[in-house]
Amino acid sequence: MGRLGGFRYREIVRKLRASGFEFDRQAAGSHEIWYNATTRRYTTVPNHPGNMPEGTLRSILKQAGIDPETFYSSNTRTKFRALPNRVRPDLLSRQVMLVLRSIEGDLPSCGQPAC
User: Fold this and answer.
1) Domain spans of the chain?
2) Measured between alpha carbons, how far is 91 from 74 in angstroms, rounded to an integer?
3) What pLDDT, in 10s, does the model give residues 23-73?
């Protein structure tokens, strides 16, 4: 068994929550979809009894953008350093955010909440 072997569903979910993931929806059977609004990433987590296979946990972490070493060595109270996927919204200025939101269709083209 590798370093990521031996984790149970509850431990994995606890660590995903600590990294900013929230339960999004129930998928087929015993699988759940979790979403992180900050990184805009989804991950599928099977809710099975017993230990999670190491390969399955690696897939969960890859989808989530979490480094396996960080996941293994951290306790549940620390935030994970997500792998870069796109620019973090909390680091952008208000003007840039308005432009991005208008491009994505969240705002009208004038850049104001109401034109």
Assistant:
1) 9-82, 85-115
2) 24
3) 999 998 999 999 999 999 999 999 999 999 999 999 999 999 999 888 887
The tens digit of pLDDT for each residue in 13-28 reads 999 998 899 999 999 8
Query: How far is the CA of 49 from the CAs of 6, 7, 27, 84, 105, in angstroms?
Result: 12, 11, 17, 32, 42
CA nearest to 81, candidates 19, 14, 12: 19
Residue 92: what residue type? L
* Fold of the domain built from segment(s) 9-82: Metal Transport, Frataxin; Chain A (3.30.920)
Q: pTM here? A: 0.63
